[in-house]
Amino acid sequence: MQAVANKVPAGPVLWEETLPGGAHWSGVMRRGTALRFTDIEGGANVAALFWNFEEKNERYNMPDTLKAQHTAYLTRGHCGFSDMGRVLFSIVEDTAGWHDTVCGVMDDALMAERFGTKRFQEHRNAMQRSGKEGLLKEMGRWGLGKRDLHANVNLFSKVTADLDGNLLFVAGKPAGTSVDLRFDMDVLLALTTCPHPLDPASAYEPKLVRLCAWRAGIAQADDYCRNFRGENQRAFENTARYFAD
Asked: Regarding beta strands 158-161 and 24-29, do their DSSP bridges make them parallel or antiparallel, or are they unpaired?
């Protein structure tokens, strides 16, 4: 698939930001807004967590998301289901074609084993922080903690399985690859640009990711994601009832 880094958002841009490699970020994405993630250098990974901002006990549910849409990964047309059967987000455009759902996020132990330890006190901006640590720091800003960690989505990362069931990391996403998420509820989003836990790179070199948000509007009756699966239609109906006046 060809990357479309210069594609113009289909609505008024609200804000733009570049996340350094190994950084973390969180914020509220309102219903009807969209967020484009662009892999600026190639080889990026974005570990993302999703909650209903109004009621944070409702969160992204990986098993329901996958079984309802008959898939093991996410791409255009797929939606992120909550554990209440509602749609938190939809993937409306995607030049990557595959986003990992099952491998989780790199923790301190794995990072130290792979790359050693570099603390801020000695290394300043060259410090190394695991994805799990970064997510927990962002979660703490919103009153969340370890018990609120759940299965994340790894944007831009492809992982397949061989005949023996071993998971294999597939490298090669080019610079400019992008994915657009539309938010179908008011979503608390937490991100880290730490490397994927299965990335075989021998050096800690996480990549830059560009964020661009705009007003996309809510899904209409003919929306591609809404009609991608019958379960998607039912989940969108549940979501509409949640927001009914």
From this structure: unpaired
